[in-house]
Structure formats: C-alpha cells, structure tokens
Backbone:
C-alpha cells in the first residue's frame, strides 16, 4: 500500500543509519587488515577484495556526505546517482539495485560467452575448409 510521508522519512533515516553502521563495521575490519599487513601477514584474496571495496567506499563517502549535510541537497541525489551510478558507497545500496547490477553483469557474461562460441565455431569451419 501507500506509505505516509512520515513513514517514508523514517524509512530513509533507517536506511542511512544502517548504511553508516555497515560502513563503520567495514572500516574497523579494514583497519585490522591493514594492521595485519603492516605486521607482515598475507591477506587472502577475499580479504584483499573487501579491503579494496572498503577503501573505495570511504573515498565515495566524501561527495555523498555533501548531499547528506547540505540542507535540501538530498533532493538532487537521485539526479547525481543517475549521472554517476557508482557514486554511492556499497553499504548504501538497496537490494533491488544489487539485483539489477547482478543481472547486468550476468547478461554481459552471457553475451561474451555467445560471442566466443560463435568465434570458435567460425574458426573451426575455416580450419575444416582449409584442411578439407
């Protein structure tokens, strides 16, 4: 059903709170990983990816905070997200955005696989024609 304006505001505030909370947790974990790196330990591939994602999120947080801090600037946030879709830190993404991004990646992989199959089939035909 339709939500009241109050409920929409409360939902947005919860979304921002949860996003900042998750970013704080990721930052603490990343700080521990950096500490381990500085003391000579080696990170796994998964830990390295998480560290890179958290660092990227921290760099994306700076322009995002401008929208949160400046009054009435959050009304322009959808426009900037349309122009720069990767501007939002990963902890602030909704499930629908994550699913949409996964679908795009899957479609791109399927198109690449189809192209490679066609290329290999064409090469096989050429080789067959050359030898036969």
Residues:
């Amino acid at each position: 059903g339709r939500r009241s304006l109050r409920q929409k505001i409360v939902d947005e505030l919860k979304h921002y709170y949860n996003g900042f909370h998750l970013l704080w947790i990721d930052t603490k974990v990343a700080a521990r990983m950096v500490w381990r790196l500085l003391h000579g330990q080696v990170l796994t591939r998964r830990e390295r990816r998480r560290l890179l994602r958290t660092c990227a999120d921290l760099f994306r947080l700076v322009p995002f905070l401008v929208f949160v801090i400046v009054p009435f600037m959050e009304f322009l946030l959808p426009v900037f997200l349309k122009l720069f879709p990767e501007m939002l830190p990963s902890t602030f993404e909704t499930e629908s955005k994550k699913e949409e991004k996964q679908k795009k990646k899957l479609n791109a992989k399927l198109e690449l696989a189809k192209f490679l199959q066609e290329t290999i089939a064409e090469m096989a035909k050429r080789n067959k024609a050359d030898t036969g």
Remarks:
- The chain is about 80% helix and 0% strand.
- The chain has three domains: 1-41, 44-87, 91-131.
- The longest helix spans residues 95-131.
- Residues 91-131 form one domain.
